[in-house]
Design brief:
alpha/beta, Methyltransferase, Methionine Synthase (B12-binding Domains), Chain A, domain 1, 9 helices
């Protein structure tokens, strides 16, 4: 449903900061019955990955990147009535960004896909201190924790979070993912028992259906 022409038009509007045009594209797709995962994967995730690439290549400014992020975060709200209408299955997850990780859209989308599949997704947001993450895990005792990483240079903070979780909660499964793993770091998951790299929303949904 998201063909190349539609995607390119949306990306152009997003980079230009044309919020209303982006809004009209998304509401049109929702009215046409697009699935949430397809919308997230083929429009939101793809466009934000491209925005990240353009920023890293110095083809857009930090302001451009922040504006595209702000627009996308607002558009996610349009999908919430569908997401929260899903039947609950009495499972919960804590989703968080590592300390010093300020890009939270990926984590938000993970939480939303979990909600769509009946989970309670407790999204803690960007730049969550390890101590706060551990305290919240202790409080709600989730079935798993998911950690999002967008910038590869922050991988040290991610591994510190994993170390802390595995120290305090050895049997708790941890999922990791995000744009950063397009550039490297995939070996992190192999260093731990009960840690799995999830490279796509499709694979996340497939995993959730097996748990």
């Amino acid at each position: 449903m998201v063909d190349e022409n539609l995607y390119q038009g949306y990306l152009k509007a997003l980079l230009a900061g044309r919020r209303s045009e982006c809004h009209d594209t998304v509401t049109g797709l929702l009215a046409a019955g697009i699935g949430v995962k397809e919308l997230y994967d083929r429009l939101f995730q793809r466009s934000m990955y491209r925005v990240g690439e353009l920023w890293e290549e110095n083809q857009i400014t930090v302001a451009n990147e922040h504006l595209a992020t702000s627009i996308t975060e607002g558009l996610l709200n349009l999908v919430y009535p569908t997401i929260f209408a899903s039947e609950r299955i009495d499972k919960k997850a804590v989703i968080s960004c590592s300390a010093n990780e300020f890009h939270q859209i990926g984590g938000k989308m993970v939480a939303d896909i979990m909600e769509l599949n009946g989970w309670d997704g407790h999204f803690l947001g960007a730049n969550t201190p390890i101590e706060a993450l551990l305290e919240y895990v202790q409080e709600i005792r989730p079935d798993l924790v998911a950690l999002s990483l967008s910038i590869l240079s922050n991988i040290g903070n991610l591994t510190q979070s994993i170390d802390a979780i595995k120290s305090d909660f050895p049997s708790l499964d941890v999922l990791i993912g995000g744009q950063a793993f397009r550039w490297g770091g995939a070996d992190v998951a192999r260093q731990y028992a009960g840690v799995e790299l999830i490279p796509s929303l499709d694979e996340l949904e497939n995993l959730l259906k097996k748990i």
